[in-house]
Automatic annotation (TrEMBL):
Coiled coil: 8-60
CC annotations in GO: troponin complex
Upper taxonomic lineage: Eukaryota, Metazoa, Chordata, Craniata, Vertebrata
GO molecular function, one term: actin binding
Assembly and oligomerization: Binds to actin and tropomyosin.
Keyword terms, alphabetized: Acetylation, Actin-binding, Coiled coil, Muscle protein
Record-given protein name: Troponin I, fast skeletal muscle
Length: 168
């Protein structure tokens, strides 16, 4: 937090310095216009003079902008030439491709690949156990079961039934 406070102070000071420099530069370059007490012909001469100065500044701005654009184009061309000379190009992002083991071996070994790699053939076979055989299903009237288990007595019976098989 101390570093942030110090950075903010320096930033604020920098902004104040820039504003003061701008005001100083403008006060040197721009003289205040005194148009009061001038006749119509003098005002017209002043306007012509200001227009001439604006045209000169505008031409300079256009020339500088053209030079700047030319330089940026030249920099881009030189960067491309440097990349061409190095032979280093930006690699495109590669996508993941799912390839089976057989296809991968064929790609690596070519036509020499004769052995089929069936990964599932080496797995153990496991028999599914019938869970229904382990747990006998009581077939009866479901309405009686619902009536017997309703209320607090039914909850007590369920609690006692759950306790008894564990050996308590």
């Amino acid at each position: 937090s101390l570093m942030l406070a110090k950075a903010k102070e320096e930033w604020d000071q920098e902004l104040v310095d820039k504003q003061a420099e701008k005001e100083r530069y403008l006060s040197e370059r721009i003289t205040p216009l005194h148009t009061s007490g001038l006749s119509l012909s003098q005002l017209q001469d002043l306007c012509r003079e200001l227009h001439a100065k604006v045209e000169i500044v505008d031409e300079e701005r256009y020339d500088i902008e053209a030079k700047c654009n030319h330089n940026t184009r030249e920099i881009k061309d030189l960067k491309l030439k440097v990349l061409d000379l190095r032979g280093k190009f930006k690699r495109p992002p590669l996508r993941r491709v799912r390839v089976s083991a057989d296809a991968m071996l064929r790609a690596l070994l070519g036509s020499k690949h004769k052995v089929s790699m069936d990964l599932r053939a080496n797995l153990k076979s496991v028999k599914k156990e019938d869970t229904e055989k382990e747990r006998p299903v009581e077939v009866g009237d479901w309405r009686k079961n619902v009536e017997a288990m309703s209320g607090m007595e039914g909850r007590k019976k369920m609690f006692d039934a759950a306790k008894s098989p564990t050996g308590q």
